[in-house]
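Changelog-adjacent note: as of this version, every example in the card shows the full chain rather than a window. The one below runs 92 residues end to end.
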Amino acid sequence: MKAPVTYLALENLLTAWKKPKPDPGVIKLPSMTKQVTSLRSIESFIEMGAATYTRPDLVTLLDELHVFCALVELRIPIAPEPAPEKKKPPQV
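Full-length structure tokens:
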């Protein structure tokens, strides 16, 4: 920190320090929409041929996708059901 500290700089430092820090063990997962968009992006690149992939690259990708599919299939039976949607009251 600089020797002469302005009030504004000190206030900014204290405000930043007061902000709640996320727990290091808690990970915020990306939404499923972002996950699906990412998969579709890879699909588009392969379809368009924008990126040239070699046979070993595609075999590796396919192997990883098989493992991924198996994991998802195992999780489906134990996944919780979504919360029921609240019905909106009829508008008059």
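Structural remarks: The two ends are 62 Å apart (CA to CA).
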